[in-house]
Specification:
The chain is an alpha/beta fold and 489 residues long. The chain contains 13 helices and 19 strands. The chain has a six-stranded mixed sheet. A five-stranded parallel sheet has the order 16-17-18-15-19, with helices on both faces. Strands 10-11-7-13 form a four-stranded mixed sheet, covered by helices on one side. The structure holds adenosine-5'-diphosphate.
């Protein structure tokens, strides 16, 4: 990386609340200019140490008033979460690197050297598959850099791993010059150990490059979401952009954060999958998911209380932490169960109307809170009370429809990936053809086809006369016929 893109800066603090998005930091205005891509509205990122701190889609010109953070030149403001991740304290000097990521930033292949912390203590055998899983668990979504050394424990022994080479999906042919990437679920590790180290690596799969996932689309595949790239980007843009900006900028633009969204469309198309992922991306932890029918109680007044309780954590945080409150993402599945249009239920008691009113009151109350994003989901948008869908409430509506052929292929790839990686998928399986034959299948139904096909294959291995007989694992192969059979069900 060219030196001009590296700057030394002093760490300043800032409250977490100004960004729901922990990846964002502020530099002083002049530093920011040196980081921005001139004339571009592109994503730009900076890295402190090995941690992303600036991740920004710049829809506006760079004329921010950063005075309120009092960030002088040569400073970078990090909130407590960022400081913890970057292992820095206020006043520390850090090197900040401007980084424009390749289109696809997930690492596909990572070649690493292994050595003992204490050399040559014993002849150690390392299972590459096990170690990969362990490393992914530990480093998922973290950035690793070439020549970086990390220590880890495997079977009670400490090792040092040095990153040698990284290949990123988008740059399949470019194996030199990539310096860092993020560890994703699809990252493939190639372990190397010199003879002198005494480490023997077993279970290393054939050629790493043959494992490179060819998908070039927005990399949702590694998150297990197929065919919804455009929808994901739309949600991302509406939910994130305003939250990335400093509050005073948002005020000056006269825009407001989106408080609520509605994802609608047929069942099993990935609405919950996406909402959960968005929730995780917004505040780094599993979002709260509630389900309409669960909230609905047969006792008078109880449902209203359940609705109030949903918002209690956010309100509490706001009271006690004020601006420092984190964003609360509330995912409301089957929201139609409690939000049918008022007057539509036939019991004539008006009980239902009370529930809708309670939800509306709470959502309107969120205005002041500013720390809630409600994502509602339904298969029946037509049933929802219209008032719920007005501006300021669930105002962004995104349709999640049945996947097209490309989407179906991606979904099939996702759900057969494990068996393929573990060599259980017969070479005659043609996912492209299956995708072509499954018009009008939802993601959940495609997953069902894979499960059913697998059960045919497993069935062949079971001896019905003797169920205690061990299954011959090596011989399990799921074939095209198994899937075709499953399609007939
Ligand atoms: P919805 O909320 O739209 O009813 P879900 O997100 O609950 O659907 O989907 C149910 C399951 O179906 C998921 O857990 C996943 O295994 C599979 N699935 C559905 N859509 C997709 C998709 N687009 N990509 C990958 N898997 C999917």
């Amino acid at each position: 990386m060219a030196d001009s893109s590296v700057m030394k800066m002093t760490v300043k603090t800032m409250p977490a609340s100004d960004l729901a998005f922990t990846n964002l930091a502020y530099c002083s205005p002049s530093d920011l200019h040196s980081f921005a891509v001139p004339g571009s509205t592109d994503l730009f990122l900076a890295i402190v140490g090995e941690v992303f701190v600036l991740s920004f889609s710049y829809p506006f010109s760079l004329t921010y008033d950063f005075d309120r953070f009092n960030i002088s030149d040569g400073s970078i403001a990090l909130n407590s979460i960022q400081r913890r991740h970057a292992r820095v304290s206020a006043g520390d000097n850090v090197y900040v690197t401007r980084f424009i990521p390749p289109e696809n930033f997930d690492l596909t292949v990572l070649t690493v050297d292994l050595e003992f912390v204490r050399k040559g203590t014993k002849n150690e055998q390392i299972d590459a598959t096990l170690l990969s899983t362990q490393l992914k668990k530990k480093f998922i979504n973290q950035v690793l850099t070439v020549s970086q050394k990390v220590t880890f424990e495997y079977h009670g022994t400490n090792y040092i791993l040095t990153v040698n080479r990284a290949v990123i999906e988008a740059d399949e042919n470019q194996t030199n010059g990539i310096e860092r990437g993020m560890i994703g679920n699809d990252t493939y590790f190639v372990f190397e150990a010199s003879n002198a180290s005494g480490i023997k690596i077993v279970n290393q799969r054939e050629s790493a490059t043959s494992k490179i996932f060819k998908e070039k689309e927005f990399n949702l595949l590694s998150l297990g979401i197929g065919g919804l790239g455009a929808e994901f980007i739309a949600i991302f843009r509406r939910a994130f952009t305003s939250r990335l900006l400093p509050r005073d900028v948002v005020n000056r633009l006269g825009t407001k954060h989106v408080k609520g969204m509605l994802l609608f469309g047929p069942p099993g198309t990935g609405k919950t999958l996406m909402a959960r992922q968005i929730g995780k991306m917004l505040n780094g932890k599993e979002p709260k998911i509630v389900n309409g029918p669960e909230v609905l109680s047969k006792y008078v007044g109880e449902t209203e209380k359940n609705v109030r309780d949903l918002f209690a954590d956010a309100e509490n945080d706001q009271r006690t932490l004020g601006d420092a409150s984190e964003l609360h993402v509330i995912i409301f599945d089957e929201i139609d169960a409690i939000c049918k249009s008022r007057g539509s239920t036939r019991d004539g008691t008006g009980v239902h109307d009370g529930i809708v009113n309670q939800l509306l009151t709470k959502i309107d109350g969120v205005e002041a809170l500013n720390n809630v994003l409600l994502i509602g989901m339904t298969n029946r948008k037509d049933m929802l009370d219209e008032a719920l869908l007005r501006p300021g409430r669930l105002e962004v509506h995104i349709e999640i429809s049945l996947p097209d052929e490309v989407g179906r292929l991606q979904i099939l790839q996702i759900h057969t990936k494990k068996m393929k990686d573990n060599s259980f998928l017969s070479p005659d399986v043609n996912l492209q053809e299956l995708a072509a034959r499954t018009k009008n299948y939802s993601g959940a139904e495609l997953e069902g086809v894979v499960k059913s096909g697998t059960s045919y294959a497993l069935n062949r291995q079971l001896s019905l006369e003797d169920l205690t007989k061990a299954v011959d694992e090596e011989n399990i192969k799921i074939t095209m016929d198994d899937f075709l059979q499953a399609l007939l069900e």
